[in-house]
Amino acid sequence: MTALTGPRPKPRPDIQDSPWLTVAYLVFVFLPMAFLPNWPASAWMASLAAVAVFLPLHFRFYRADERHRLPILLLVAGLGYALIPLNPGGNTFIIYACAMLGWAAAARRAIALAALLLALMVLEFWFTLPNLPLFLGWSAMVMVIASLVLTGTLFSRARARRDAELRLTQDEVGRLAAMAERERIGRDLHDLLGHTLSLVAIKSELAGRLIERDPLAARLQIGEVEAVARQALAQVREAVVGIRATGLQAELAATRLALLSADVRLDQRLAPVDLPVPVESALAMALREATTNVLRHARAGRVDVELAMHEGEWRLSITDDGRGGIMTSGNGLSGMRERILAVGGRLDIDSPVGGGTRLLIALPADALAGTTP
After folding, report:
1. DSSP code of 12?
2. Less crowded by CB within 10 Å, the N or C end of the chain?
3. Contact in structure between 261 and 299 (CB atoms under 8 Å)
4. What is the distance between the alpha carbons of residues 127 and 316, in angstroms, rounded to a whole number?
5. 42 near 86, Cβ under 8 Å?
6. Class of domain 248-367
């Protein structure tokens, strides 16, 4: 439980899009001039100068802290207002500023400031565009695009925050689980070895006193010390097996966190059953391997895990709605099959291409001594 199932998703950056990718939208600065003939050279020069000023601000925004982002985006908006009288394509910088607002301010403040920026742009269009149809068309188009861009940025920001919180939750769950496991191991070892070592010390001391006076009694005490030591060794080995084994519920919790962080839904239906340690460990490892395959290869959106009694045997099924087509000899499935066979079960795999994957682990009911459905 100290490590989550499967590979961890790569943390998202604060600003999700690449600065080099978003530079491509600068083509819209020049689009109006490309479609209208006889555009003055001053408009082209002003547009090129605005782009030259914008680029350092754009890349600076990606590296700036919170307090410096708002001034940068206001400068970007100012470029748009300065260019619009010469080239309506200057509205592109207003849209950039609205996108930046999604990262620079809280949602309500970002929406309010974006509305103010767009209102000023519409007012400028009123005075600079030659007729009413152009004014209405340009204003509506830019407002719709800017609204969509701002909404998408706010959603991306919320997603990035949620992923960051989820990573913290994963770390906290792992830390608490490790702490609880250390405490449990400490209690088990104290209960297991405390009485045994005390008994060994007492009998060894008694044998030392009797070794000259009554050698036969001393040998009996030494024999009992040996028997107690062997019994303690067997108990320690059994305890180590239990410590190494991963509980199915604990592995399921780790699986839920790992899938959630990858935006994969998990539905679980586990019947209450008291599994022997080797069986539970084998099932937990199978669940871990299956989840790893889902995260690495399946491209799934949903995983179903079910443990139920069916036709006289316990069945654990792990099903995903991914792309299927996995190789039964790869992806760690060979090792999974060996572990299941070792506890008397079988593993069936159904993975048609494009139809998802279903792993079915079946164990005879009599192999699970002491279970309770």
Report:
1. P
2. C
3. no
4. 71
5. yes
6. alpha beta
